[in-house]
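How a chain folds remains the central question behind the approach discussed here. In the encoding step, the backbone of a single protein was reduced to a row of integers, each denoting a local shape. We regard such an encoding as a compact summary of how the chain folds. The sequence in question and its structure tokens are set out directly beneath this paragraph:

___
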Amino acid sequence: MVAFALILMLSMLLAACGGDGEKEEDTGSSNGGDSENAEAKSEGPELGQKDLTEPYVAWARETISTEMLKQLLEKAGYNVEKKQVEAGAMFSSVADGSADFQTSTWLPATHKPYWDKYSDDLVKVKQVLDKAPLALTVPSYMDDVDSMEDLKGNEELGESVDWEITGIDPGAGIMQNTEEAIKEYGLDNWSLLRSSEAAMLTELQSAIENEEPIIVPLWKPHWAFGVMDLKMLDDSKGIYGGEGDQIYTIARKGLKEDAPRAYKVMEQYDESYEMINKLMPKVHKDDQPVEEVVKNFLDNNPDKVDEWLDGVPTE
């Protein structure tokens, strides 16, 4: 009986040890799976340079697109500093490496002078919008003005606006286009008033409220076309780029090697007129903070975020 009891106890002990061994083996298999999942999540371009600088001009679309790429890159693990500058500094800072990228290059017409000057040190990362037209623009109730030629020698119109075209910041490409247009169309009596986009829009809104004449340089996409009845003047000489520019994300040379993950995000980021036209009025007309507008869009459009961040590790 004693021998039988000892054999029974040994059998139970061995069974218990075998069970523990199986549990340890199962646990080891589970840990291996977690490791494989973690490895899969970490696959993709390396982070590289973690701190990035993004210069921009506070134009209607650019305010949105700059913040959009900033928040996407932060999801990918970067620290992004936005810097509001003038157009010239936006190009020169990326070219000399003191900044890393910008979302606001309109080619072939609008920013041609800047591109000609700095293109050796810049890289076109991605075309994000096609056919972005620019032109001198007037309220639709100005029935007698439909083209650039209609401005030449138009005494009644010229005197009503003091022969002034109400412009924006002097470094903007569309301002350079307008200076050229004044020469090419022989608009000798006309002058271009330098101010800012915000000041120009204030003057435009005021003129429309009083149904007064006004001429301004404008472009699409822009929220003004969604809330005001406007028409672009026909530009038969193509000084403003004909059917329209293309808009590019531009980076400094070497960024692809220095921050591979950021470069991949930029390669995958694109825009649609529907998206930009929906977001611009919230920021520029309703005065909502651009950070909140962009965050809400990203939160409510996870499929689009997944598309932009496809194959990119997030942190």
